[in-house]
Design goal:
The chain is an alpha+beta fold. It folds into two domains: 1-82, 2-Layer Sandwich (Double Stranded RNA Binding Domain), CATH 3.30.160; 83-134, Ubiquitin-like (UB roll) (Roll), CATH 3.10.20. The protein has three helices and six strands; from the N terminus they run H-E-E-E-H-E-E-H-E. The strands form two sheets. A three-stranded antiparallel sheet has the order 1-2-3. It has a three-stranded antiparallel sheet with strand order 5-4-6. Helix 1 packs parallel to helix 2. The chain is globular and about 50 Å long.
């Protein structure tokens, strides 16, 4: 199936809008698409420029790539603040420095899932998971 150039232009526009809404440069975001049970799953991954670790920001399911991108844009523009904020302190195996990362999630387990996304559980040691006070 051939994809029209308009789809690529719209996809790039939506990705740029998502990056702008998050206040992140494009090189700190990875848009990972895959097919699951006839739907398109978009995993939005953030890359921390300081320690070069990547984490799941959020995933969305859509009918196609553009639908998933539109849902992600809607989330970052309107729904993100509905989730709780968590601070996780962790250290990668072999590193001496303690790292601090922040996640939006419905609960502590979801925040940890985002931290461990795409990696072996033994590669990171978690020292604390804290629910941040809401303002």
């Amino acid at each position: 199936m051939e994809v029209s150039p308009d789809v690529h232009v719209e996809s790039a526009r939506l990705q740029r809008q998502i990056a702008e809404a998050l206040g992140l440069p494009a090189d700190q975001l990875v848009f990972d698409f895959r097919q699951i049970d006839g739907q398109t799953r978009l995993d939005l991954i953030t890359v921390n420029p300081r320690h070069q670790q990547s984490f799941l920001f959020r995933y969305e399911l859509g009918h196609d790539k553009l639908d998933a991108l539109r849902k992600m844009l809607g989330y970052v523009q309107t729904s993100r603040d509905a989730e709780a904020s968590y601070t996780i302190q962790w250290r990668a195996r072999g590193d001496k420095e303690l790292q601090t990362s922040y996640f939006r999630a419905h609960n502590a387990y979801e925040a940890l899932d985002k931290l461990y996304y795409g990696r072996d559980l033994n590669t990171i040691t978690v020292f604390s998971v804290v629910l941040n006070p809401s303002s």
